[in-house]
Amino acid sequence: MEETTKRELVLSINGERRAVVARQAETLLFVLRDGLGLTGAKPGCLNGDCGACTVLVNGTPIKSCMMLAIETVGKEITTIEGLDDAPIQHAFVRHFAFQCGYCTPGFIMNAHALIERHPDADETTIQEWLEANICRCTSYQEIETAVKEALAAKKVETKF
Amino acid sequence: MAVGKSIIRKEAWDKVTGRAKYTNDFKEQGMLHAALVTSPYAHARILSVNVDKAIAAPGVRAVVTGEGLPLTGEDMRDRPPIAVDKVRYYGEVVAVVVADTLAQAEQAARLVRVVYEPLPAVGSPREALKEGAPLLHEHLDRYEKNKTTHPEPGTNVAHRTKIRKGNIEQGFAESDVIVETSVSFAPSDHIAMETRCATAEIWPDGTIHISASSQSPFMIKKLLHAYFGEETGKVIVHTPLVGGAYGGKAPVQLELLAYLASKAVDGRKVSVWNSREHDMVTSPVHIGLEATVKIGATRDGIFKAMEILFLFDGGAYSDKAIDVSRAAAVDCTGPYHVENVFCDSLCVYTNRPYATPFRSFGHCEQAFAVERAIDELARTLQLDPWEVRRKNAIRPGHTTPTQVRLNQSNVGDMPACLERLRELMRWDEWQRVELDAYTVRAKGISGGWKTSTIDTDASSGVILTFNSDGSVNVISGVVEIGTGTKTVLAQIVAERLKMDVDRVHVKMDIDTQTTPEHWKTVASRGTFMAGRAALAAADDAIRQLKEIAACVLRASPDDLEVGFGRVFLRDDPAIFLPIKDIAFGYKFPNGNAIGGQVIGRGHYILRHLTPLDPETGAGKPGPEWGVCAEGVEIEFNRRDYTYRIVKAYAVIDAGKVLNPKAALGQVMGAMSMGLSFASREGFLFDKEQRVLNPQLRTYRPIRFGEHPEYIVEFVETPQIDAPYGARGIGEHGLIGMPAALANALSLAVGVPLNELPLVPELIWRKQKGDSYGPV
Questions:
Q1: B757 cis-preceded (ω within 30 degrees of 0)
Q2: Domain count within chain B
Q3: What is the pLDDT of residue B455?
Q4: In which domain, by residue range, is B61 found?
Q5: What pLDDT digit, counting tens, does each position of A11-63 carry?
Q6: Do residue A64 and residue A97 come from a single domain?
């Protein structure tokens, strides 16, 4: 059995350039976690079903278990560790929108991108985006409240 | 003060910033990784296991197989940690490959050659009990077991709990009507978003360091002693934050594999981490059930007798399934007064993944069976189902199925819960309404109750230490699995010490060497037991602070109060000492010192609990019964048999709500889990009992947008022994959901729907009759 070849990748993550040696077959999720110590993105299914590993690649939420690290060279990656006091984080805390917290980084990254991309999101858009992630602890009602509050705040902000 | 306020959970900011770490987030250079080789058959003899090619593969350090290992199991030792001779369920571990990287371990796992001889597989409890059914465990008589486990050798019965109360014949004789209902559902899964993970490392001095995503770090120590003879003092278990558990992380499984794997590589650190597929099938699952409930009642709907048969699908190994089957028996009638009760609850072996606690521990299962029967009884008698429940509601003065006399403290207020539910749901206005030719709305309700059935000698300890700024650290063995219990403990301590809760810090991680034991973080007993221990620890600290202050202030300790960061004279608060000046002893101006560090210690052990009598079930399994009344409103489409859950209601007697938002979150989360289970979750098995849907794409929990509107209220009837009167609430939200959903849909569709999950296809088949063949 052949060992898969490794190579050095230089990735742009949370505004920093980070060099890492990884197998070419390695997913972004594993490179972030094992190679770079960014364990905020969580493995939940490695199959794109649960969304716990969601990060932003050029502002688009991506399930990092479904993307090869090598594909992200030259792109801007934002992980939960790169969010700086975002309104959605405050809203999640205020509305008890998590319990065990394991799905939370993925949910927050997805919701953050939604708010940035679609400040005017209607019910359907919110659902289309957020049904990508599974939360097993909350009833989703708390998450819905948090996201809608952050969206409303964004709308006010963008009007000025 | 702090109790009764929606205090933000202590680890909140760690969790929204990605800083919070779970077992698999702790990476270490040189740590080895394990991959599991699992069985593709549900029942087969193992003819040979050839590991030669795997061992020769790149990076592989060891391959562990099952020979020579002791049998394991908490109530009865029937499970080899790695299968040997025979596999008994699809996904059972047959070998563990240890390699430098996970990818290498996984590649090598594919090179392990196992030759099987398939055996006929047993697919359900009723099938397992048939004459001539294949036996899973031929040597059931030889297994080591505890005194409260009663297997029936020569059959597939791992355990039978008997409840005999009153006179069942007389009860039925006094009944005007007898209704019999049978229900069933297959095993399903917990789906914690964090899959289970354990690491093990054995140091040169023989200490064994385990890290585990577990609800039972202290039990891991005990079991490594029981199974492998390791000294408990040499086993140190670490548990950081746990990413969801719901009962599924109470059993001990991967920890044993990690220990064995580490042993095979000279004690090097090995990580065993479940893939989602293994987490769903190889690790223990939510129990399945087949049940028959016979209720005898008067024309007015007063229950005279209940005869209940629970056939729990414990899967291939009994482990904690025995306990789950017992818990359902203990509370078999639901929150109703029934004088004559006859219940047999069997834990049955089948060739399915083995079962373990699932949030509500046998009670949503019990409720689904009995509450469906109550609705059928009400329909037969043409009575209002709510009214039937109210008439029979359990009250102080009644006895439980295990003959515990209830009083104002040890049971919640069931009539009050029902009354409030009726108002919230506007029950009297309508129960079924046709909106148009195709759309029907209907409501369904369910009662629920639960006591804990944990070990009679389970205990909990808390230690409080102080910092030099006068703030306090709370150290408790309760695992933070998401329930927020540690934050509630901080609130309890803050309340007792009359201080700002922001100045009460909690140690989130468990290290069994320095953390006092909390038996297991299960059974909604964390706040009660650890809360009592925390109160005792706070009182202990207060006593010590007063002693030191009394000396300095030249006053009797009896004249002193502790609060607001000070110890002060009760009748002249201007005379005081700051806690920070005495928490490490007091130093007089001349350098002399007295006192020494204040360390508050507290513990709590449940009292007067007894095992059940093997013939009648009489005994006291738990300290109190929390009650709830729950309901669901659905909108059903008669054309395509789909439906939408519009609203879900719960009224729960919380005793006292310590943290309103956290309590609401617990209840709504539990309701969501119950609705998800009842409406769409369950393993699909083929004829050979292989699981067909061990992935979140094919096994699909509720997602955002599919959630109903949740309406939750609390009744507060204090349990006088509990901290501030609080009752357990982590599980009650789930108990009534499956039954309420099934009752609502049965009413909407017009046929009894007694199986789960309630997917449109099942409803369609039930309405059209069996002419379309089995699902």
A1: yes
A2: 3
A3: 86
A4: 31-119
A5: 999 999 999 999 999 999 999 999 999 999 999 999 999 999 999 999 999 99
A6: no
Of A79, A110, A127, the position where a domain reaches its end is: A79
Question: Within 10 A of A143 (CB to CB), how many other CB atoms are there?
Answer: 26
Q: Do A131 and B705 touch (CB under 8 A)?
A: yes
- CATH code for the domain in which residue B696 is found: 3.30.365.10
- Chosen for mutation from A45, A50, A63 (greatest number of chain B CBs closer than 10 Å) is A45
Number of inter-chain CB pairs under 8 A, A vs B:
165
Q: Which residue of B has its CA nearest to A140?
A: B704
Helix locations, B470-625, DSSP H: 485-496, 531-553, 579-582
Instruction: Answer whether residue A2 shows pLDDT above 60.
Output: no
Residues B222-253 pLDDT 10s: 999 999 999 999 999 999 999 999 999 999 99
| Paired tokens of B123 | 């697919």
- On whether both B498 and B594 belong to a single domain, the answer is yes
Question: B531 and B479: one domain?
Answer: yes
Residues within 8 A of B (CB atoms), A 58-77 only: none
pLDDT at B774 > cutoff 90: no
Considering only CB atoms, which chain B residues are within 8 Å of A49?
276, 695-697
> Cβ of A141 and B276 within 8 Å?
no
**Same domain, residue pair B576 and B663:** no
Residue carrying the six token digits 């005194």? B147
For the domain that residue A140 is a member of, what is the CATH number?
1.10.150.120
Those residues with Cβ within 8 angstroms of residue B256's Cβ, 6 or more apart along the chain or in another chain: B72, B81, B223, B224, B227
Contact A46 B6 (CB under 8 A): no
| Same domain? A54 vs A21 | yes
- Put simply, the answer to whether B13 touches A93 (Cβ < 8 Å) is yes
Burial label, B705 (beta-carbon count in 10 A; 0-12, 13-18, 19+): middle
CB-CB under 8 Å, B244 with A40: no
Stretch B709-735: mean pLDDT: 96
User: Which candidate from A38, A43, A143 shows the least CB-CB separation from B704?
Assistant: A143
Same domain, B585 and B625: no
ipTM of the complex: 0.97
Q: Which residues contact B94 (CB under 8 A, 6 or more apart)?
A: B37, B38, B39, B46, B49, B65, B66, B82, B83, B87, B112, B114
Per CB-CB distance under 8 Å, the chain B contacts of A143 are 704
Cβ distance B484 to A99 less than 8 Å, yes or no, reads: yes
What does the pLDDT look like over B32-75, one tens digit per residue? 999 999 999 999 999 999 999 999 999 999 999 999 999 999 99
